[in-house]
Amino acid sequence: MYCKYEDMDSGWRVFYGSRERNPICWTALMSSYVSNGRLEQALRSVVWMQQESYRPDVVTVATVIPVCAKFHSEAWKGDTVLA
């Protein structure tokens, strides 16, 4: 709910304060990052998810593929993507 209203900091605190995180929660967090234009955070969340021993599922991959495509198109133009 916080993320819907662009309060990603509160959403992040609720997520990380939760004792039970699962791929659905992780994907919701990534989707919120994407919706709020925080593309790097969305991709970093995939790594953090895996560090907590969760594997991305089909929905997670479908959430981050457009982010990868955006970064690829920016890199193709010669823009700095991930410094």
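(ticket continues) Second input and output from the same batch:
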Amino acid sequence: MHILAQMICEAIGEVLLAEESTLSAKSFATCFARRSGSSDGLNPFIAENYLAINVRKLLEPEPGPEIPRRPR
């Protein structure tokens, strides 16, 4: 699933769990903070200068060990 679709689903889940009735920027900010581990200043849903934030870099998975592929 595309990351944007995942974040939309997570934000909707935040609203439902909190028994709120409105999806808001706060819902998305909470999801982004959980995914990225970033401070509020690097959260594009609440930062003033959100255009300067490289969201892709913040959400890139940590490099891990190379997983060898089995030959076909």
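Agent notes: The mean pLDDT is 86. DSSP finds three helices and no strands in the chain. Closing as not reproducible unless the customer responds.
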